Amino acid sequence: MAHFTKPVEGSWTDHYPHLRKTPTTYEDSISPEYYELERKAVFAKTWLNVGRVERVPRVGSYFTKEIQVLNTSIIIVRGKDQRVRAFHNVCRHRGNKLVWQDFPGEEVQGTARQFTCKYHAWRYGLDGACTFVQQESEFFDLDKGEYGLVPVHCDVWEGWIFVNFDRESEPRPLKEYLGAYGAGFEGYPFHEMTQVHEYRAEIGANWKLYIDAFTEFYHAPVLHQKQAVPEESLKLQQVGYEALHYGIDGPHGVVSSWGGMAPPKDEKMVKPIERKLRSGLFGPWDPPIDIDLPPSVNPGRHKAWGMDSYLIYPNWMLLVWKPGWVLTYHYWPTSYNTHIFEGTCYFVPPKNAWERVQQELAVVSFKEYGLQDANTLEATQKMLESRVVTEFPLNDQEILLRHLHQTTEQYVADYVKQHPEAKDSVPGPAAR
């Protein structure tokens, strides 16, 4: 059940009886065996966000996405019927990668009337059907109708494209999977935020550890202290920091933060460049458009609200900022202790150079915060793998950390029940 306001006084964790308060192990973040189970139980079974519809604006527009956690590549394309579809990026003749340019491992985008294999020129329509076979008469009773591209479940919610790789059963409908938070976002003007800035980094840490870093603000006054003027940094360290609202709905969660820096009550508490440009980490201080907030945005309805961080399980975070822009995080596992992190900023297009510079200050501010987190987590990964310490206490602000690891544990447990042969590969207790 989703909670949009704090139902009772006291501990946030107490509002969700299924969450354990016992110390947490991070075996699920340092075990190669557990990672292999996650690949099958989580990433092959859940809806994964791969971007926005603006990347496929017209018939024939496409882009590819490398999904290393499942050892595959996919094509996202808009068909003649305007439907957005997804296919495995593999030719049905000899298994060659179908769509790529100079380097097979790089993601590409463009526009095409059809897709032609570089190896033997088999061709496929935008709907995935095989339309041409080179020297077809050389094959033995070949039926092109049986050799179309392998489809991937694909659906669109509020302009966001999702795929699901489950081939054992029909996945739960996307809208139903997104639950109360998804329904509560309907009508938010994502479609107006088409000015895009992207970052991508290879991180030497488990994917869940980076999510952990972005689902609590307990670390902010310490790790990010140099991002504020000394007076503000000292104040935050003395009084501590706690978010305004925490919520859980199914596998998903949200944490809301204050908005004292957009704009600040006292401009002396931010850096000179932020005062000069009226912008910073929270984005430009002056919203570009008026937005009527739907129920999922600022769910606690706090006057001091500044931003929400939503974890759409398993690996997508959607950050909605009070000044009217959106930031997304993707965490794509590449091994048990590495992943690719993608950070994408979406703004209403600037009307002039002044607004462009305001946006760019927000973008580079985010980059600095992200680098500080990433650097710390690579050190965390190394020491967790030492197993010198195996149990770690979490406080009440770290509610979404408990929820993330317990949710993953449950997905793995359910998978093992359905596939008993996998039981022997489950390492000891994970993320308790």
UniProtKB/TrEMBL annotation:
Names of the cofactor(s): Fe cation
Superkingdom of the source species: Bacteria
Domain Rieske: 47-163
Record's keyword annotation contains Oxidoreductase: yes
Keywords: 2Fe-2S, Iron, Iron-sulfur, Metal-binding, Oxidoreductase
Annotated protein name in UniProt: SRPBCC family protein
Lineage, broadest ranks: Bacteria, Bacillati, Actinomycetota, Actinomycetes, Streptosporangiales
